[in-house]
Each structure stands twice: as C-alpha cells, then as structure tokens.
C-alpha cells in the first residue's frame, strides 16, 4: 500500500503569464493533490523570478517523479516531506562525552530527524541535561525514532525522560 | 448482624477501628448492624464482647490482651468479612490470612499490597467460595480507583492508565522543581518530615509504584507480574533537568503507566498544565478509555484515616444492599 504524504516544494518562476500552470501540470498529471500555493512576491530573486511554494499530497514514488519532471525545466529550490509529528525528550547523563554527534547521527534517518537541542552543562564531570526535539513524517516513524533514542541512550548510560501520552 | 474480624492492628487497623467506632451510626444506616468479633496482630488478640476503644487503648499500651495468634483467630472465629491490614511484605505472610478467610467463605477487605503477587489466584478463590476480595486501600489511599475501574468503567475498554502512585517521590520532585534543590538534599528533608522512610529505596526506585501498577494492571485485565514492570526511579533527576524541561513547558513526575503494550514506572515529562503535574504528596490517576474519554482522579495516597476510609468504602460496597437505605 502506498500511503499519501504531504510534500512541499519551492520553485522559482518567471513573472509572466502561464508559468504557474506549467508547474502545476506535472503534479496533477502524476496524481498529486495540490493543497496550497503561496507566491513569495517579496522574495523576488536578482533574476526577477518569484519563489512559489507549492504543497501537495502524493505517495513517495509519485512525488519523486513529480520532482524529477519539474527539475528538468524549472529551478527547484527545495523539495521535501513535511514532517508532521514531533516529540521532545529529556536526556540526563554524559550527553556530550558520549559523542553527541554520533547520538544524533544515529537517531536521524530519512523519516525522522533531530531538529532542536537545548543543553545545560553544570560542571565538568557532572551529568548534563539536554532536551531534544525530533520531527518525523508520521507517528510510526516518530515512535521508531524514540525507540532508537532508547537503545542508543541505554548503551551510553543516559537516562531518557519521555513525555507522557504523546505516543 | 455483620461480623467483622480485623487482622493487623497497626496504624491502618487502628484507624479502621476508630472510624468504625466513631461513625457507627452512619455506617449501620447504610449497611446494617455490625460487630467486630475479633482483632488480632503479632502482639496478641481480643475477641468476644469488647469495646473498640478498649482494644485501641490496650494496643497503645503495648499489646492486645489475649494469647490467641492472628492465624488462630483467622481459623477459629466466625466472621463474614476479614479486614486484613497487616504490613506489606510482598510474601505470603498476609496472604495466608486472606486465604484462610476465603476458604471459609468469608470475604476479605485488604490494604496489603502483597496481593500483587497473588491477585488472580485470590480472586479465583473468592469466586469459587462465593466470597469477595476487595482491595481499594492498596492503591492510591483514599483516592477511589479500584472500584472506579471495576464498577463504573466496567463496560469501557481501558486503553491506558497513567498514575502518580507514590506520594514520597511526588513530594521530592515537586520540591526539586520549586526550589531548584538537588535530589539528596530534598530526600533528607523528606526523611526529617517523615514523608520518606530512612531506607527510601522502595519509594525512590519506583518499587512501591510498580507494585501498585501490577495491582491496577490485573484489575483492568492485564495479567501482570512485578517482573514485567520496566522500572526507573527518580535518583538520577537533577535540578537542571527541571530547568531544561521547563523550556518546553514540561515538568518531571514519576509516572506508572499500564497499557496492553507496556508496563513501566519511570520519570516522565508532564506538561505543566496537565492534571498529572500534581504537587506535593498527592496521588493521581489518568484513565484513557474507548468510550468515556479521559477520566482523572486525585487524592491523598497515604495516611491512617485516608487508608481506613478506603477500607470503609469496601465495607459499604460489600454490604450496601443490606442497609436501610
């Protein structure tokens, strides 16, 4: 089963008639369902192009095809899934000394990623505290990411304090 | 006439006897005439025609007047209900009294958390003998949870329960949150105030909450044992943790959680405006159901009369149809 997901892309369009339609066509043709279009007129580029943000739902495969087609004739600034679920986890322990970047690298994957980290490091050799926010494209992906955090932190001797009632 | 035997005559047992004496008129209006036919504990026993006040007085002076042991009383006396309020030891010591009563076809009301190791067995035994086992006082003190789950929510699917079941931990975490004090300092304060015991392990390591969680889980049809509970205490929580959590609008509480998927007792992030962000020594339980949505109860989780009041509520439950209204 291919589940429909929410995507967002930003394309740069020349400010003349018919440009938007050219971009929307491949989305519609490939079964994408357009849910929003925002002209960013205030952000006109030096080449006098207007960035336009388009949101649509489609399954991953079709979205990829839409992206390839658009890329062939227009500047695509960004393209990605909208990450819809987030969670904050509190980590207590030697968060830094146990290779923080390794921790984050192992949590991140294509469906979920760490988007924010706030830390307090009281004294040398004392446990520090971090609150880590993870975003994921779905609740399932988020739950898997939390499971990865649990495993990694168990291995590194870090206490994970999870929120009540989120997952 | 309802005949009551009280086994265990420490703080809770004396609290029950005091309430039975003080509220006799109200109680009898609800459930009919009653008589405490015997009281027994490790110091001795008392039976026959005696005043509850005298029993309490003689226990306060040192021991109960008669030589018969609690086991002999449990076996020999004629009673309709045993109020078993001996100390929780997580072994068979209290359970043998309950089994003796149930085998005779008498019902049992208990505050003994040891039932966590034998609840399904005891309930089966009670059913077979057409008797009842009621244990409201084992979880959450005065807070009505067992009968809430068993009766009022009997036709709901209980999807998840999240509880604050240990007042000592909640007190320590609240003080750390409010004063920014380290765990060890607040623990010492709690010990001096008599909120924490000199050996605080059972509380601060989540053992007590875990035992209560097992009782709740079995009550909602999850056949759980203590070993099934994933457990993490509060000893690693730092004052900084509260400050960092607050940046996202959270505080930290020791939460006992039961669902079909998981049983765990662990420190958790709780939104500061959540009902579970309850303060001080209070206990709380948040129940998620399929049809009734969320239900929340809170109250005093421990104390002589709080626990005794839970026992009286079981007594009422057992005999309420026999009263005059």
UniProtKB/TrEMBL annotation, chain A:
<protein>
    <submittedName>
        <fullName>ACT domain-containing protein</fullName>
    </submittedName>
</protein>
<dbReference type="InterPro" id="IPR002912">
    <property type="entry name" value="ACT_dom"/>
</dbReference>
<dbReference type="Pfam" id="PF01842">
    <property type="entry name" value="ACT"/>
</dbReference>
<feature type="domain" description="ACT">
    <location>
        <begin position="8"/>
        <end position="84"/>
    </location>
</feature>
<dbReference type="InterPro" id="IPR044561">
    <property type="entry name" value="ACT_ThrD-II-like"/>
</dbReference>
<dbReference type="InterPro" id="IPR045865">
    <property type="entry name" value="ACT-like_dom_sf"/>
</dbReference>
UniProtKB/TrEMBL annotation, chain B:
<keyword id="KW-0560">Oxidoreductase</keyword>
<dbReference type="InterPro" id="IPR001342">
    <property type="entry name" value="HDH_cat"/>
</dbReference>
<dbReference type="GO" id="GO:0004412">
    <property type="term" value="F:homoserine dehydrogenase activity"/>
</dbReference>
<feature type="binding site">
    <location>
        <position position="197"/>
    </location>
    <ligand>
        <name>L-homoserine</name>
    </ligand>
</feature>
<feature type="binding site">
    <location>
        <begin position="8"/>
        <end position="13"/>
    </location>
    <ligand>
        <name>NADP(+)</name>
    </ligand>
</feature>
<comment type="pathway">
    <text>Amino-acid biosynthesis; L-methionine biosynthesis via de novo pathway; L-homoserine from L-aspartate: step 3/3.</text>
</comment>
<dbReference type="GO" id="GO:0009088">
    <property type="term" value="P:threonine biosynthetic process"/>
</dbReference>
<dbReference type="InterPro" id="IPR036291">
    <property type="entry name" value="NAD(P)-bd_dom_sf"/>
</dbReference>
<feature type="domain" description="Aspartate/homoserine dehydrogenase NAD-binding">
    <location>
        <begin position="8"/>
        <end position="136"/>
    </location>
</feature>
<protein>
    <recommendedName>
        <fullName>Homoserine dehydrogenase</fullName>
        <ecNumber>1.1.1.3</ecNumber>
    </recommendedName>
</protein>
<keyword id="KW-0028">Amino-acid biosynthesis</keyword>
<dbReference type="Pfam" id="PF03447">
    <property type="entry name" value="NAD_binding_3"/>
</dbReference>
<comment type="pathway">
    <text>Amino-acid biosynthesis; L-threonine biosynthesis; L-threonine from L-aspartate: step 3/5.</text>
</comment>
<keyword id="KW-0791">Threonine biosynthesis</keyword>
<feature type="binding site">
    <location>
        <position position="113"/>
    </location>
    <ligand>
        <name>NADPH</name>
    </ligand>
</feature>
<dbReference type="InterPro" id="IPR022697">
    <property type="entry name" value="HDH_short"/>
</dbReference>
<dbReference type="GO" id="GO:0009086">
    <property type="term" value="P:methionine biosynthetic process"/>
</dbReference>
<dbReference type="Pfam" id="PF00742">
    <property type="entry name" value="Homoserine_dh"/>
</dbReference>
<feature type="domain" description="Homoserine dehydrogenase catalytic">
    <location>
        <begin position="144"/>
        <end position="315"/>
    </location>
</feature>
<comment type="similarity">
    <text>Belongs to the homoserine dehydrogenase family.</text>
</comment>
<keyword id="KW-0521">NADP</keyword>
<feature type="active site" description="Proton donor">
    <location>
        <position position="212"/>
    </location>
</feature>
């Amino acid at each position: 089963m291919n589940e429909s997901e929410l995507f967002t892309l930003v394309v740069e369009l020349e400010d003349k008639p018919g440009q938007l339609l050219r971009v929307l066509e491949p989305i519609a043709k490939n079964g994408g369902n357009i849910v929003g279009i925002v002209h960013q007129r205030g952000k006109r580029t030096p080449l006098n192009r207007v960035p336009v943000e388009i949101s649509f739902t489609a399954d991953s495969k079709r979205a990829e095809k839409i992206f390839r087609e658009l890329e062939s004739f227009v500047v695509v600034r960004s393209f990605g899934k909208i990450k819809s679920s987030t969670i904050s986890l509190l980590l207590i322990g030697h968060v830094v000394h146990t290779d923080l970047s390794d921790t984050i690298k192992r949590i991140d994957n294509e469906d979920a990623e760490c988007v924010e980290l706030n830390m307090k490091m009281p004294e040398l050799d004392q446990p520090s505290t971090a609150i880590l926010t993870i975003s994921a494209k779905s609740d399932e992906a988020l739950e898997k990411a939390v499971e990865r955090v649990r495993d990694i932190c168990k291995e590194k001797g870090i206490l994970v304090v999870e929120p009540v009632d989120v997952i | 006439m309802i005949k009551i035997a009280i086994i265990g005559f420490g703080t809770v047992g004396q609290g029950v006897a005091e309430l039975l004496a003080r509220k006799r008129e109200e109680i009898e209006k609800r459930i009919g005439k009653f008589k405490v036919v015997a009281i027994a504990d490790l110091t001795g026993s008392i039976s026959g025609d005696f005043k509850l006040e005298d029993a309490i007085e003689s226990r306060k002076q040192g021991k109960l007047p008669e030589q018969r042991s609690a086991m002999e009383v449990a076996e020999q006396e004629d009673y309709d209900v045993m109020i078993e309020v001996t100390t929780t030891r997580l072994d068979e010591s209290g359970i043998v009294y309950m089994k003796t009563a149930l085998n005779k076809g008498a019902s049992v009301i208990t505050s003994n958390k040891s039932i966590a190791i034998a609840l399904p067995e005891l309930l089966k035994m009670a059913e077979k003998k057409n008797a009842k086992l009621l244990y409201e006082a084992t979880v959450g003190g005065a807070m009505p949870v067992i009968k809430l789950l068993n009766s009022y929510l009997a036709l709901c699917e209980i999807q998840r329960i999240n509880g604050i079941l240990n007042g000592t931990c909640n007190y320590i975490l609240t003080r750390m949150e409010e004063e920014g004090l380290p765990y060890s300092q607040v623990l010492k304060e709690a010990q001096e105030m008599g909120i924490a015991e000199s050996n605080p392990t059972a509380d601060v390591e989540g053992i007590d909450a875990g035992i209560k969680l097992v009782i709740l889980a079995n009550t909602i049809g999850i056949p759980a044992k203590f070993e099934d509970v994933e457990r993490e205490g509060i000893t690693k929580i730092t004052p900084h943790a509260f400050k960092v959590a607050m940046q996202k609008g959270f505080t930290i509480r020791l939460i006992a959680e039961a669902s079909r998927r998981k049983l765990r007792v662990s420190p958790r992030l709780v939104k500061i405006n959540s009902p579970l962000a309850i303060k001080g020594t209070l206990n709380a339980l948040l129940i998620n159901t399929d049809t009734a949505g969320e239900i929340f109860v809170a109250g005093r989780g421990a104390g002589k009369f709080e626990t005794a009041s839970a026992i009286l509520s079981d007594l009422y439950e057992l005999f309420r149809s026999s009263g005059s209204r």
